[in-house]
């Protein structure tokens, strides 16, 4: 049962005493009706048959690529991954972790900025080997439509991203340079 697995992982990994974010690998289906896999083996079979994909594989692979799905396929223990630009995994964290930056409401950069902040605070990013989630198809949100159609919206988001980088630099000094350098090299 998923909640038992998460609770067990939290205890085994000593999450209450450790700065770690447990990454739940994300997948998606293009089908509106799906029998949810009961195990990792069943999920892998569905992945191989093409009824599931790694999350946003077709449109935004950078968002979840650092999860290292190839490694996850055979992993039996949690493994550590490194932050990379645009990484936006789904995570299980302690309640006292940094909060989402409230500048990023609507569509764009809420999870990306959160993971950057966790990384800046030296949280370990640990992928759970037997956890997974599946995103189901739905109509586009109002906010993603605004992002796609409005240059003004995208411009505002860019300004907020720059402010966020400046704040990271103030809080974490030279350690935050890697985020800005990565952003500029994209």
Automatic annotation (TrEMBL):
Q: Name one Pfam family in it.
A: Glyco_transf_49
User: Where, if anywhere, are coiled coils annotated?
Assistant: none
Q: What's a single GO MF annotation on this record?
A: metal ion binding
Q: Which residues cross the membrane?
A: none
**Chief subcellular location:** membrane
* Compartments it resides in: Membrane
The record ties this protein, via InterPro entries, to: Xyl/GlcA_transferase (IPR051292)
CC per GO annotation? Golgi apparatus; membrane
Instruction: Classify the protein's membrane topology as the record does.
Output: Single-pass type II membrane protein
Q: PANTHER family per the record?
A: GLYCOSYLTRANSFERASE-RELATED (PTHR12270), XYLOSYL- AND GLUCURONYLTRANSFERASE LARGE2 (PTHR12270:SF23)
Identify this protein by name: LARG2 glucuronyltransferase
């Amino acid at each position: 049962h998923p909640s038992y697995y998460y609770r067990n992982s939290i205890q085994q990994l000593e999450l209450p005493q450790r700065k770690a974010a447990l990454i739940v690998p994300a997948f998606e289906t293009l089908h509106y009706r799906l029998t949810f896999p009961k195990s990792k083996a069943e999920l892998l079979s569905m992945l191989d048959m093409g009824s599931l994909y790694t999350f946003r594989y077709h449109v935004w692979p950078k968002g979840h690529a650092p999860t290292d799905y190839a490694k996850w396929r055979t992993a039996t223990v949690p493994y550590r991954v490194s932050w990379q630009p645009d990484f936006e995994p789904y995570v299980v964290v302690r309640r006292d972790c940094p909060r989402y930056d409230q500048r990023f409401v609507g569509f764009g950069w809420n999870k990306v900025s959160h993971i950057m902040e966790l990384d800046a605070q030296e949280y370990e990013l640990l992928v759970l080997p037997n956890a997974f989630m599946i995103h189901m198809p739905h109509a586009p949100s109002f906010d993603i439509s605004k992002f796609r159609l409005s240059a003004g919206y995208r411009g505002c988001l860019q300004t907020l991203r720059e402010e966020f980088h400046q704040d990271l630099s103030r809080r974490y000094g030279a350690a935050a340079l890697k985020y800005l350098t990565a952003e500029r090299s994209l």
